[in-house]
Amino acid sequence: MSDTEVKFEDMEKFEIVQRFSNWKELLKPSAEMRKGFYSYAASLKDQEYLNLPFPREWSPLDDDWKLPPNWKEIIINKMDELRKKYRSFQVFMDICVRCGACADKCHYYIGTGDPKNMPVVRAELLRSIYRKYFTKTGKVFGEYAGARELTEDVIKEWYIYYFQCSECRRCSVFCPYGIDTAEITMLARELLNSIGISQRFTLTSAAACVRTGNHLGLNPGGVVNSIQYAVDDIKEITGIDVEVPVNKKGADILFVTPSGDYFAQPHWFTFIGYLMIFHELDLDYTMSTYAAEGGNFGFFHSFEVAKKINQKIYKEAKRLGVKWILGGECGHMWRVKHQYMATFVDDTYEDALKSLEEPVNPITGTKFENASSTKMVHILEFLADILKHKKLKIDKSRNDHLRVTHHDSCNIARGMGLFEEPRYVIKSVCNYYYDMPDHSIREKSYCCGSGAGLLADELFELRMRGGMPRAMAVKYVHERYGVNHVTAACAIDRAAIPTLLQYWKLPVQMGGVTELVANAMIMSGEKERDTDLRGNPLGEYLEVEV
Amino acid sequence: MSLIGTVVGVYIPYIAAFIFVVGVLYRVFQWSRSAVPFNITTTCGQQYSLPWLKRTWIDRFDSPFTWWETVIRMLMEIFLFRSLWKNVRYELPAQKAVSTKWLWVFGLVFHWSLLIVLIRHFRFFLEPVPWFVSTLMKLDGFFEVHMDWFQPHMTHILITGLTLLVALLYLLYRRLAFPKERTFSLPSDYIALILLLGVATTGLLMRYVYPVDVSEVKALAQGLLSFHPPANPDLDLMFMLHLLFVSTLLAYFPFSKLMHSAGIFFSPTRNMPNNCRAKRHVNPWNYPVKGVDWNEFYENFKDDLDEIEQMGFVVRPEEY
Ligand code: SF4
Ligand code: SF4
What we know:
Chain A is mainly alpha-helical. Chain A has helices at about 25, 45-50, 70-85, 85-95, 105-110, 120-135, 135-140, 150-160, 170-175, 180-195, 200-210, 220-240, 265-280, 305-320, 330-340, 340-345, 350-355, 380-390, 410-415, 420-430, 460-465, 470-480, 490-505, 515-520, and strands at about 245, 255, 285, 325, 375-380, 405, 485, 510.
């Protein structure tokens, strides 16, 4: 067992100590690396592979981070560049009134009580530097204008706190000016990257994705093996031979999903769910080993790495000659696909975007007008459409052993607005659905605590603390309605929430939305089924073990 | 006395107004010059996707798809403080969030009062007084309280002047008294409040306690506006104080967070429609980034990929 693994009993009961300080204290950088709250440094291999600036071996625990000699100059220049490139940066730096509406909206603040995790203060960590070097008042009045000198400790503090933000945008919902601390975090990470500071977890996944086409670093053969297991599983459960096209030219649709689905638990059941449904619909689709990843960990690192990963999907769509792209259940993947994907496109693959057609559901004939430019449709939009037109035979009672609630994943909630689709789909296939309390769903949804690269093991305590508000909302519906199943249309959630539920001792299981559809779907020619996809007996209420 | 009158009544207001106008324009110019690379609207309601999918009227404005829905979203933000309305407070150890509207109430009262008070001030600058100003005066003075016992010249109380003061006092109180708010409040946050309080109190004192010669004030205001200020105006002390506070506030404005009043129009999370997949947004400074293309990928994983080809690009269940 490595020293980072935290045993559950170690932190059976943690206390939330709310610390209140004052502006003078907050201007002093807190650079102390506390176990469970700081991330490991990126490996040299990955830094080199991605051609990042100033690749080197370093550790956050070292006193000397081996920064380039002119690091200060680099940061200031980069800030100057960013403020010209991003209006959001300049406006968000200038107009915050410190009203505090965002302060207790951050799940990391709620769970840690650390004032520097208040979104407003998180932004001030950068704003104080911006003031010092780019505003008159900051230059003249110094700390009385809330400005401070850029030092190595400030860099360390940035590294700690900008990797304690899951870019969930909850703060942005409540801010009267829409100031989005997630955007500030993204730009701060961009700044850190400019002097060679990256976090290990994001970079390992991003590098793997550039090299192999997926975050897990599976070779094409590995992807095929996974699919092989999936079709074998389906045969065992239903007795049906399902064929899955891979790298097939001339299909209608390219299907991409986050690579976690290929074998992680409980992603797996959602994965076989997709394949079962596509088979039943007789959909002309293909998967790809080159674009085997829907997610984009580059997005948590920098503009360039994000673009490197993003282009594969369009390039592959063109190579295979498909008409449009269907995307699986994933959170940040969908923030990128919705708000960034088509914008990322540059002249090296502009033609790929043009070769696609406006998406039309081949089964129902529905035109997905809202995706007419990017040509990328969400699986739950697709399924909602299919279920509305009754194109699948559904036996709702097959989900009667479950009392279901839905967790709105941050990115598709606040970066896309996908709220009704999952609810419509779930209610079409389940008899028992209950929403969590208002303050914890839809645009106010709490993060699972592990987004934006914070799923790393070394951040375990932070994650469990940050996930606390979500866990408490689940606890509420569990106690009130006997909810025993949480769904989330996000691969990170599917990895993070089971641990969270286990930590908070909630007898609740979790999985994707599509899993429930596949569970309730009666396939033509299937054998008699008395269990769900997971092997739980149908019918009586499922007692989940803690 | 008259030299002071000229300095405080003419020079300082002109200088302050100049700094205000140039400063604000400069800041706005700076913002508009920087690019908007991505459509990063914060979606606070159901997106437009399938036409039959439930989308309430408020969803349309919290997650606008068309330009006019976006305009309404902005208007709701500016005039009704839509986002602050959503405010909740997280309660430990009960571990739930409860709705809280105090910031919304006092924020809204403050801003609306300030707006109405400003419009009321037109009557000093414009002759004849426009109808909407006099109507507003009447509405504002809805409660006629005869105060002859206090000040013979007073017939009614203007409500917004008082609500302005009360709201400002609350906004100051929360920064001083609430631990979270005390934690992140900077000196500049207090400066803004103190200046505004100075303006409000001197204004109220003039109206209710130390009456000033309104015709003098009007002459000065109209003179300043027409660039023919009266020579050597003789001004009351309270009025000079009021002018000084106002001038300081104006001059301070472009350098401070008060710029939020202009900045909100530039906030990309609020002023962009959520039509990202329907309409491609173009990044003006986009540049090509080289990734791994298919050929390179094929070279790296030739064996695996050839095997997939041999399988006919299909994965089937294994024979049992
Ligand atoms: S809600 Fe917005 S304006 Fe208020 S403190 Fe937070 S970021 Fe600043
Ligand atoms: S984006 Fe989310 S994690 Fe980051 S500061 Fe805002 S609320 Fe906290």
